[in-house]
Design goal:
The protein folds into 2 domains: about 35 residues, no CATH class; about 140 residues, Jelly Rolls, CATH 2.60.120. The protein is built from 2 helices and 10 strands; from the N terminus they run βααβββββββββ. By secondary structure, the chain is mostly beta strands. Helix content is about 15%, strand content about 35%. Bound molecules: fe (ii) ion (FE2). Fe (ii) ion binds next to loops.
């Protein structure tokens, strides 16, 4: 079940409002707004359970078990491309109209690999991957990736079948369905995705909410 995580000591506020010594009443009001938003009832979405151990790793994906060190974004992109080329990703497609669904393909101490399924209207909201780097390859359909700009607005591009995207340390993006029922993408993270940072508006501020890596990311 997806847990609601309140802002903690590790959450970082993006300083777009009053800084130290600024309007404390306004800052308190903004914090109360965030807390009241988080306190709203949420849909109890199931969280995928890892399939430990992996003796049933398909032979077509045996190369994943040979990852024995931390990988960087270009290597993760190649790894996700290899999963797409294996064709085995088809066994992990789990499109669901109620919520954006995905399946864990493999994990060890250095990497975790997921197959994500996207239906029209499903998206992540802006987020980062904490200390993990990421590589993405589209297996079917198309997804649209957005990047945030500090000076306002965002930009986006479409990733179609076979396209890859590298997300180095510190990468921030928003991903949404673009084409296909479902669109399918393979995502590889290193180190394994333990935490994510979700970005939310709070008055005239933006805040980063640190949440467990297997939280189902969604827009507010
Ligand atoms: Fe992401």
């Amino acid at each position: 079940m997806a847990a609601v995580t309140l802002p903690g000591a590790h959450d970082h506020e993006i300083a777009r409002g009053p800084g130290p010594g600024g309007n404390l009443t306004a800052r308190k009001r903004d914090l109360e707004h965030v807390l009241s938003t988080l306190a709203r009832p949420r849909i109890a979405w199931p969280t995928p359970e890892p399939r430990w151990p992996f003796p049933d790793l398909p032979s077509g994906l045996a190369f994943l078990a040979r990852v024995d060190r931390q990988l960087h974004a270009p290597e993760l992109a190649q790894l996700s491309r290899d999963v797409v080329r294996s064709g085995v990703w088809r066994d992990y497609v789990v499109a669901c109209e109620e919520y954006r669904d995905y399946r864990l393909v493999f994990e060890n101490d250095f990497v975790d690999v997921w197959v994500l399924s996207w239906l029209p209207g499903q998206e992540t909201g802006f987020h980062d991957h904490d200390i993990s780097e990421v590589g993405i390859c589209v297996a079917d359909g198309a997804i649209r990736e957005h990047h945030m700009h500090l000076r306002g607005g965002d930009s986006s591009h479409i990733l179609g079948i076979g396209d890859v995207q590298e997300g180095p340390f510190g990468y921030i993006h928003r991903v949404e369905h673009w084409a296909g029922t479902p669109a399918v993408s393979v995502h590889a993270y290193s180190p394994p995705l333990a935490w994510v940072g979700q970005y939310r508006e709070a008055g005239d501020h933006m805040v980063r909410l640190r949440q467990p890596g297997r939280t189902r990311l969604a827009p507010p």
